[in-house]
TrEMBL record:
This is GntR family transcriptional regulator. SMART domains: HTH_GNTR. PROSITE patterns: HTH_GNTR. CDD domains: WHTH_GntR.
Amino acid sequence: MKKNLYQIIVDDLSRDIHNGTLLPNTKIPTEQALAKQYQVSRITSKRALNDLETAGLIYRKQGSGSFVQPDQITTTASSAAIAASPAKNDILLIVIPTNNVSEHDALATALNLALQQTASTTICKLVLADKLLATITELKTDTLSVLLLGDHFDHDMIYQLYELNIFFFQVATIPDPLERPQLLLSTTTAIQDLLDNLPQTATQLYYCGLTSENNYSDQALKIDLLKLTRQHPEFKLHLLDTLTDLELNSELNNVLIFRDFYTLLTYRLQQSVVPSPPTYLVATTLTSAQQSLLKTFNFSTYAIDTDYLLKVILQSLTTFKKSATMVNNPIISAKKLTD
């Protein structure tokens, strides 16, 4: 798959930071300089710098520019291995919520494969949340780390991790009030972009919920939709829990918004021959196969690029472990996916 132009800039600068070409506190070229060097717009170069800042590779000083973040590991080894590697012979448990496996298993599998490719001395295990403490007891090792994928985990389990002094961090869509180490996945920017660019004829927005029970990230998206549509009084928002509540025709003033890929797929398979209203998917993550299928249906899609997300997670495994008291958790925003 051809790289986006901004991703080329991100990859080049990430490589130079990791291999020592750009040393800590070195000034990064400006948006204007990068735009000229790579023959892209300033919007593209700005996005690249924003992504580098989100990944913790650079920091910014108002009026001075962007600089390489201190404490980045610099070596001639490959940048992927640098970003990823916990200590040798570590065991990383990738934990998925027991009651919501399907939403996270694809990301967990992709992460497991990425870790195996970049850190072969790290043993990775996929674990359901209700089996985590038993698995920790069986392993009996002090070189253990835990990565939680999902929004809601039992508070007693979290307390046990603290009590056992086990390093962990969480990939979630909802900030934790206790300020535990988290990598936050956000759809707020994507929803704002979607609402700003809807067809002029659009007046009725139908948010189609999950066909199964709603989860925390689904509720967070509903709240974001309610907040952001207040800035667009021309739209009326309808929140639907299931597809059975969706009874509409192909009139141009209707717009459908989905959060879950499989709910959208079910809707597509149930469609009649009449043209579909403008349809959007706002997700956090999608597999490459899901993205390809969505393109054939001509649905507009907002999500986080999976390859980029994996890079940030791998980097965070190192960053969070170095700074267990970190409060300023990085945020990755979903963006409109293009060919």
